[in-house]
Amino acid sequence: MPCRLSLENPYHLTLFNLSSIGETNVEMENTFMNHYSIRDFDPSLSVGFLVKRCASLLSTVGEAAFESQPLSVAGFMVLMSLRKESPMSPSELSTKTGYDMGGLTRVVDALEQAGLVKRERRLDDRRSVQIAITSPGIRQAEQSLATIVDQLNQILEPFSKREVGALVSSLQRLVERLQEFVETRPRAQPRLTPSKRVRASTRSTR
């Protein structure tokens, strides 16, 4: 299953949402700046590489931490979302967790079988299904959260509260900017297969 680094993603939100240690206001210039150049670009120092590397390492930490837990990292992500807001529609839960509908269905199936979530019909539309967390699900989410928080405190121990606050603020801004960029950029034209390219070029020469 894909696991993208996102502050909308409950597991990564848990990893970075350390608001209890204080907020830090980071002033940023509003003027456009080129932060990279073709001449001296180093992929290992790019934002994309570093964020992806952090996501990969955090996933490894999470998977190791959950080896002793009765649910997976994916299950924890779903429970944390529903712990904050329940019930939710499958599409809403997919957006919150970053999982596609197929992957989410498998995770919810496992959680429902364990009695941690339940599917229920909407009162105003019996055709629609919502997913709700159960009391055992809430207890399990809180138990697993304690494990994750302990791991995070160990990882972030060398950093000051100010540094962590600045990191969280920057990541939140990056998520917002990426979301804006994705939503406003023009859609790319579908790529032609070799056979379609041949037919297209044939038609253009007639």
Give your account of this protein's structure.
Helix content is 56%, strand content 5%. It is built from eight helices and two strands. The protein is globular and about 55 Å long.
Compose a concise summary of this entry.
The protein is mainly α and 206 residues long. It has helices spanning 10-16, 47-65, 73-84, 90-97, 101-113, 135-155, 161-184, 194-205; strands spanning 117-121, 129-133.
Characteristic key phrases:
mainly alpha, 206 residues, disordered N terminus, globular, two-stranded antiparallel ribbon
Q: For this entry, what is the oligomeric state of its chains? A: single chain
Spatial arrangement of strands, main beta sheet: 1-2
| Number of β-strand runs | 2
Q: What does the radius of gyration come to?
A: 21 Å
**SSE series:** HHHHHEEHHH
Mean pLDDT: 80
Number of helices: 8
Helix content estimate: 55-70%
Q: Briefly note the structural class of the backbone.
A: mainly alpha
